[in-house]
Amino acid sequence: MLMYDTWEEQEHDFPFPSDSETKGAMEVLQWAYDYYGDELVYACSFGIEGSVLVDLISKVKPDARVVFLDTGLHFKETYEVIEKAKVKYPSLNIEMKQPALSVAEQAGEHGDELWKRNPNLCCQIRKVIPLEETLSGASAWLSGLRREQSETRRNTQYVNKDNRFKSIKICPLIHWTYKDIWRYAHKHSLPYNTLHDQGYPSIGCQPCTLPADWASGDARSGRWSGQGKTECGLHQ
Ligand code: SF4
């Protein structure tokens, strides 16, 4: 398994973006699929970054494995965009990965609306463990993180040691701005989650996602709003 100990090592393999449209993303994806092949999986949330990354991936590896962590609590608009992606990219392997407990079973074991009382446990059951299971059969995973998204993502590199999942996390979009993402999506007429048109820049499960508070300057301010939580546990 490839490891980078310093940014200088990465910089050697990935000099600052030479491709003006994709800001290095295509070079990183090409390297990643050459290196990991079928052992590379994309955990996609099917927000706008997901729409863009799925499109880029389809140009590099048309039969790539794309996994959606289907908590059973997503917006109908999210499921709609997944169906559109399946039509647009028929050769991609888009999997719906469900947790061991259905929403009703979780309520039976932990009480109704666990996300209100213990969102960390809810995310652990419905997102973190399913991703662990997904990555147990992979050497590395792709994520659409961008540095601009939040303070906690500011230091994300193209290739990251992922101690949480004992894996390698590859993030081709780190240099993209929100405008870059939308410019690409419109130029290539990509299907996208229509909640973005209703003030949701970041979209997760329905019970834990509100439109963003744009005045805060934080595109992720609508996620777990008022609960003191900013990440689901997949990215630390
Ligand atoms: Fe549960 Fe909310 Fe996490 Fe979804 S985002 S798994 S509903 S706590």
UniProtKB/TrEMBL annotation:
Positions of the catalytic residues: C232 (nucleophile)
EC number: 1.8.4.10
Cofactor field: [4Fe-4S] cluster
Enzyme class: oxidoreductase
Involved pathway(s): Sulfur metabolism; hydrogen sulfide biosynthesis; sulfite from sulfate
Cofactor note: Binds 1 [4Fe-4S] cluster per subunit.
Phosphoadenosine phosphosulphate reductase domain residues: 40-211
Binding site for [4Fe-4S] cluster: C122, C123, C205, C208
Swiss-Prot/TrEMBL GO biological process terms: cysteine biosynthetic process; hydrogen sulfide biosynthetic process; sulfate assimilation, phosphoadenylyl sulfate reduction by phosphoadenylyl-sulfate reductase (thioredoxin)
GO cellular component terms, semicolon-separated: cytoplasm
Catalyses which reaction(s): [thioredoxin]-disulfide + sulfite + AMP + 2 H(+) = adenosine 5'-phosphosulfate + [thioredoxin]-dithiol
Gene3D superfamilies per UniProt: HUPs
Main location: cytoplasm
GO molecular function terms noted in the UniProt entry: 4 iron, 4 sulfur cluster binding; adenylyl-sulfate reductase (thioredoxin) activity; metal ion binding; phosphoadenylyl-sulfate reductase (thioredoxin) activity
Annotated compartments: Cytoplasm
Keywords annotated in UniProt: Cytoplasm, Iron, Iron-sulfur, Metal-binding, Oxidoreductase
PANTHER family assigned to the protein according to its UniProt record, in alphabetical order: PHOSPHOADENOSINE PHOSPHOSULFATE REDUCTASE
Described purpose of this protein according to its UniProt entry: Catalyzes the formation of sulfite from adenosine 5'-phosphosulfate (APS) using thioredoxin as an electron donor.
Homology family: Belongs to the PAPS reductase family. CysH subfamily.
Name of the protein: Adenosine 5'-phosphosulfate reductase
Organism (species): Fictibacillus solisalsi
